[in-house]
Amino acid sequence: xxxxxxxASGISFRRGLSTSASTIYALSTAQGRAALAVIRISGRRxxxxxxxxxxxxxxxxxxxxxxxxxxxPRVTTLAPASEILDDALTLFFPAPKSYTGxxxxxxxxxxxxxxxxxxxxxxxxxxxxxxxxxTLIESGEVEAQVRYANPGEFTRRAYANFRMDLTEVEGxxxxxxxxxxxxxxxxxxxxxxxxxxxxxxxQAELLEISALMAAIIDFSxxxxxxxxxxxxxxxxxxxxxxxxxxxxxxxxxxRSEILLAGVKLALLGPxxxxxxxxxxxxxxxxxxxxxxxxxxxxxxxEIGLExxxxxxxxxxxxxxxxxxxxxxxxxxxxxxxxxxSAEADVVVAVIPAVMEDxxxxxxxxxxxxxxxxxxxxxxxxxxxxxxxxxxxKKVIVALNKTDLLQDSKLELPVLxxxxxKELSISEDHIFPISCVEGEGIDELMQFLVNSFEGLADLGxxxxxxASTRVQEIIRNDVVPSLQRFLEHAQDDDVVFASEEIRYAAxxxxxxxxxxxxxxxxxxxxxSRFCVGK
Length: 533
Ligand SMILES: Nc1nc2c(ncn2[C@@H]2O[C@H](COP(=O)(O)OP(=O)(O)OP(=O)(O)O)[C@@H](O)[C@H]2O)c(=O)[nH]1
Known about the structure:
By secondary structure, this protein is an alpha/beta fold. The chain folds into 3 domains: about 1-165, Gyrase A, domain 2; about 195-260 and about 465-510, Four Helix Bundle (Hemerythrin (Met), subunit A) (Up-down Bundle); about 265-435, Rossmann fold. It has helices at about 45-55, 115-130, 155-160, 165-175, 180-190, 195-220, 230-260, 275-285, 330-345, 360-370, 410-425, 440-455, 470-490, 495-510, 520-525; strands at about 1-5, 10-15, 25, 35-40, 65-70, 85-95, 105-110, 135, 140-145, 145-150, 265-270, 300-305, 310-315, 345-350, 395-400, 430. The protein is flat. Guanosine-5'-triphosphate (GTP) binds next to helix 8. Guanosine-5'-triphosphate binds near residues 273, 274 and 276.
């Protein structure tokens, strides 16, 4: 049994103890007025508290929801009615098959602040009624038998009692933070134990190889195991296969990142094209100023939103126009617009169907061509105030203000054909829209959502959410040590090779929380939790 001091909270605990010194309670739902609130109690006194609170002579049946009247401790001088706290749905989950691995009680009470406060006061009072109200904990300090939980303490106890490993803990944290469908899907695979099973299988395989290497080292002289023999070569083949799956897994995490952190989408185009109007339609609110004055947007306007289940960071930029026609402030705005487009995953070029100034046309065209890496006339550098390395971008055209066309049926096909040729963009990537009339917006959004799916290139795989901590351990510890194993093995250096395998296995132990050097790791993992979880 190992004691893990937690640097985040300063509390030490043993992993593997079925009960902790104190019983903890907390409001697990959000603070504030609501229809319902859930108060959770975990620890060895929770069942007694529930019995006293419900004035029930027998323990409540496990895992059964029952409607009970909750009573305050008999200390009130008010009328008997004041002893009634609430009528609540109560649940009892006995240890060890509960979230924390301890006895847990859940009280689903009415969500008014006064109700919640009164019930929590009563939990505390009932808990402290017992003769052994305080306990001496390992450090020699006295700890209250019943107290309000620290952030993440329920989950921390679940980890301490082997109810979950660290990847599941991080998955729970991901579920709490998930804002989009993609984030939820990525988090549930970790919370549901998929990552734990995968990493444990890697570790088991490594331990098997490690045992084999130890045997080769110890018994090579007896002739049972030999580094020139097939067992050694089998372990090399096994390790390279494992390394390749670990590298694939790591790449998949990186590709998932784009969807989890948010797809960067930039709006680019000439002044007055309707970029801010389109941003407002995407955001369903007035996030950017819309004005008839060209050049209204001087700086980057960035908003976070959800499109079709994907997190998107949408950027509205200053309209592009010739440097010779503008002042310093606008020129800087245009530089920033180009930078934002260069950094974006997808660029929507907003081009008005009726161009007010043909000069802007050339500026916008050249910028879009550059973004697509189709080369620009190297002599044309009038607007290129701040050249920078650009990567090929997915560019989609929103052909706006189609409501201004005299005869859109006739004019649109000609315009689309012309833009497609000039910008080397497929006609399927040009969407006629009208921000004023709301025409074509849904089709554009749907196309964007479909293209986000392709960005991560995950095929039919679901995105994987892994914390930076996990990614770093895989990238900096697991993969390099397996690569070093293969190098040593090539040189027939069994001793060094064997050390690398053990190092890799230990690094995986750090991912799941089975390593003995866990203080810092635990501090990082639990510091992001809220109270009640
Ligand atoms: N007729 C028509 N007018 C539009 C449409 N979309 C935007 N406008 C108008 O065009 C003007 C400029 O719109 P904005 O959204 O501010 O354009 P912008 O591209 O952000 O402009 P800058 O900030 O100058 O770069 C405003 O008067 C809008 O009401 C449209 O689809 N049809």
